[in-house]
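Protocol step 4 of 6: structure prediction from sequence.
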Amino acid sequence: MTIDHIAVVGAGAWGTALANIAARAGRTVTLWARDPATIAAIAASGENPRLPGIRLDARIATTGALEDVAHTDAVLLAVPAQALRVAATALAPQVRANTPVVACAKGIERGTRKFMTEVIAEVLPDARPAILSGPSFASDVARGLPTAVTLACADDALAATLARALGSQTFRPYHSTDVRGVEIGGAAKNVLAIAAGIVQGRRLGASATAALITRGFAELARLGRALGARPETLTGLSGLGDLILTCSSPQSRNFSLGIALGEGRGAPQTLAEGAFTAGVLTEIATEQNVEMPIATAVAAVLDGKLSVDGAIDSLLTRPFKAEG
C-alpha cells in the first residue's frame, strides 16, 4: 500500500502540527478545518491562530469541504476524543473502503466506554482503524523538534506503512499491533497528569510528584494487564513515556488543569481530555476489579464529590502494603 496523500481532519494545534509533519515527510496534505475563520487566517498569514508562530508548509491545502478528503490515502482524525464520533460520522460518506483512519486523540468515549479505534470501527466499518499516541506537544512537533511516538494498528504491515508515511528525521513513529495497550496509556496518563498537577498546585514537593507518577504508572499498568496490553507497550512511549511528559510540563492541558485545582482556582471553562476520561476510566477499572485509587480520587474531585484536600487525605491514609 502506498500512502502519498494524507488528510488531517481537525485544524486545532495538534492537527496543524500533524499536517506539518506529514508535509515534512514528503506527503501531499489536505487539512480540513470546521471554522471558516481559521481557513481565512491561514490563507492570509500562512499561520493557524491555534498554533501561533508556526508557518504551515506550502504543500498543505486547507479546506472546509469534507468531500476534499474523499480521495486521500489515509485520514488522521485530530479532533478531541469526545468529538471523534461526530467527526467520523460526518466523514462516513467520503471515506473509501480500506482507507486507514488514524485516531490522534487520547481518551475513552463517555457513555459507550469505547476506545477511539472502537468508535472508528463502529462508525466506519469498512475503514482500517489505527491509533497514534505518545509523548508529544503540538508546538514541539510543528517546529520539527525531535519527537518519538507509537502508531498502532491490528495489521502490522499497515502500521509500518503508516509509520513510514509520517516519519522523518525528527518525527519517529514506532509501529505496533498492540492497539489496546497504546490506547490505555494515552487515556490513563491524562487522568494521572491531573493528579500530578494537583500535587504541583498544592506545592507538595518533588518527592510527592515522583511518588505520584510512580504509583500512577502502577495503576496504568494494572489496568493495561487486565485488558490484555503488552508490558513493552505500557513501559514504552505511549505508556510510561507519555506519562512522564504529561506529568511534568504546564504545556500539558491536563497538568495545567490539575495545577488550577490544586491552587484552588477551579477548572477552566475548556476542560482537558482527562476531565472527560476520569469517570469512564474508573468505571472500567471497577468492572475489571482493578484498583486505581489515584484515578478514582481525580474523578471524585472533578465530579465535586471530594475536595482536593479530601482526595489527598484519602490517598495518604490508605493502608500500608507491599509495593506492586
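Step 5 (inspection) to follow. The chain has a mean pLDDT of 94.
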